[in-house]
Amino acid sequence: MYLRPTNLNEALRALKERPLCVLAGGTDFYPQRVARPLREDVLDITALSGLRGTELRDNTLSIGGLTTWSDIVESPLPQWLSGLKQAAREVGGVQIQNAGTIAGNICNASPAADGVPVLLALDAQVELSALDAVRRMPLQEFIVGSRRTQRRSDELLTRILIPNRPTQARSIFLKLGARRYLVISIAMVAVTLETDAQGAVVHAAVAVGACSEVAQRLPKLEAALAGHALTPDLAQIALPVHVAHLKPISDIRGTAQYRSDAALTLVRRALAEVTLD
Ligand SMILES: Cc1cc2nc3c(=O)[nH]c(=O)nc-3n(C[C@H](O)[C@H](O)[C@H](O)COP(=O)(O)OP(=O)(O)OC[C@H]3O[C@@H](n4cnc5c(N)ncnc54)[C@H](O)[C@@H]3O)c2cc1C
What we know:
By secondary structure, the chain is α+β, with helices and mostly antiparallel strands. The protein has nine helices and 14 strands. It has a five-stranded antiparallel beta sheet. Strands 11-12-13-14 form a four-stranded antiparallel beta sheet.
């Protein structure tokens, strides 16, 4: 069975009635099914146009689950969300960015998903819709392990919600791969900083991806950054102890030790670069 509903209720009713594999851009879905026939029943959600696009309402930026990475690159987002745009430009090449969606990246829950650390550093929540209930939870709680989330089989990830911040906030995303472009991350780092009128850091969020089963925030570093002036010297505050809770693996792309060192180097670089105009 292959369903392609045009309205959300129809999609959620179908999901409630029988097990269905959700298909959005297909850029994770199809590579996981190479060289075998598609036997699962499919719910293709690409015609749910209401789930696509960004909107600022009630001091929250809402991003529809079907929003593609190219949509994000092209949206008129506030300047302080530049880290999200930088991450969007790093997801594969332009063809992948045209098809791949933000909810697909989250629900696939790869440890190397570029969208996850940047959204963690933006304190994103996910909205999960079922036919008769909608629930929200922090992204940090939603992804529980490699390829594992709290999504129930009758739910769609309908929106990602990011709390609005003052215009002087800033964010950055840096990715390290084996080459510059079109590459699976060895490590990536996202930073969001907010300052007070005197230019001192009042909110810091730092997240590292591809160095643990699930991307992690660095709470000890975030606490240490508070109160400091927004200068490139912020980089010197980051210490090995701040990344000690990460659990990188060794694989074909790099050893655990290399990933650990790379994470700290990227964090320092991100902290220095985010202070520059
Ligand atoms: C060549 C190539 C390069 C890539 N490069 C990168 C990269 O650099 N960085 C990176 O992070 N990723 C990369 N990817 C992976 C992929 O493109 C992204 O993760 C993309 O965002 C997935 O979105 P999608 O819409 O294609 O998801 P799909 O493949 O359609 O779905 C992925 C999973 O999410 C589920 N799902 C999708 N939407 C929803 C929803 N709204 N509600 C509930 N479940 C849902 C599906 O059931 C499936 O399990 C690459 C893929 C390819 C093929």
